[in-house]
Amino acid sequence: MKKPRLFYLDLIRTVALICILIIHFNASVTGYFTLPHKLFTSTLPFGIYLGDFGSTLFFIVSGASLCYTAPEHFEPAAFYKKRFRAVYPMFWLAWAICFSLRFVLRPGYYAGAKTITLVLTVLGLDNFAVAAGWVGQDFACVGEWFLGSILFLYLLFPVLLYGYRKHPWVTFAVTCVAGTAIHLTGWDARLVAIHLPEFFFGMLLVGLSRKKQVWLAVAAGLLLAVQSFLGGWDTKIVCALFGAATFVVLILAADFVAVGPVRRLCALLGKYSYAVFLVHHVIILRLVEGFDLAALSRRDTLLLFGAYLVFTALAAAALHWLDGKVRAGAATLCHG
């Protein structure tokens, strides 16, 4: 039986999406933070980078939603097949369109990329590979680095789900210790391991009562207070604690904003969030090319942000529609 939709997951997914949209807009209009901000801040309390915060919420909500919808009789092969169909077809479609346009309109743009790195693009690891320093330049043009990170977590999900169902608190402790240790050593270029406890935190949280959820938020808050007093903690660990506490606060806030229009808006944004994730960055990078960023006024920055949202919405809706048509056409070709 299909489980009822949890509004708070849609709400938190919407907040994460807004954070990602804002931080990439900020990065683009400030010349990657070399110019003053004119509309939005990029730094939250405790010196947390807004992009890291949005990513943290994204990883927590991903773990929560996957755990919540996992069937009682879980089959890893069926899970991987479903994740493959959810991630790759739309990614490949968006990549093919954006790459073709950039390759033709900006000759020589990919001259420094090695042909072998096309494999990374096919696997959805292109932006991740650049962020990790595996390659200096790739054929990346859509999506973000954390697509690669979430793919690694998807691979681990069957093991994490088994641990969650057998020994949830022990598994949570293991993910915290292992994730933090690997992160601090830098073996993963600090792109994956710290998100392992975040991901499992979401899995753990979705099955707890509100009282226990609040106690976890209080624990995260106390650790934040300790680090604020002592100082010197790794910023991504601080962000993980802040994100965990905020996640629970948003769960509680969801009860007060769960009215019809807000529910429908969050559900709509949730439906198109992956398409937005794929196209938004390439759009804002293209939009700022014609502006003198140093001379851009606050009014024009606001207008540019509005245009960015409009074009991103149109591109995401078009990609989502085209993806449906391509899937239907492929099904017809394969099955008649």
Give me the number of helical elements.
12
What's the oligomerization state?
single chain
Helix residue percentage: over 70%
- Supply the helix-strand structural class: mainly alpha
What's the mean pLDDT score?
A: 93
Radius of gyration: 20 Å
Largest sheet: 2 strands, antiparallel
Shape category: globular
Count of domain modules: 1
Q: Compute the number of strand runs.
A: 2
Strand order of the largest sheet: 1-2
**Low-confidence residue ranges:** none
Please report the distance between the alpha carbons of the first and last residues: 30 Å
What sequence of helices (H) and strands (E) makes up the elements? HEEHHHHHHHHHHH
Percent strand equals: under 5%
What does this structure look like?
It is built from 12 helices and 2 strands, in the order αββααααααααααα. The chain is mostly helical and 336 residues long. The chain has one domain (7-320). A two-stranded antiparallel sheet has the order 1-2. Helix 1 packs across helix 10 and helix 3 packs across helix 11 (260-287).
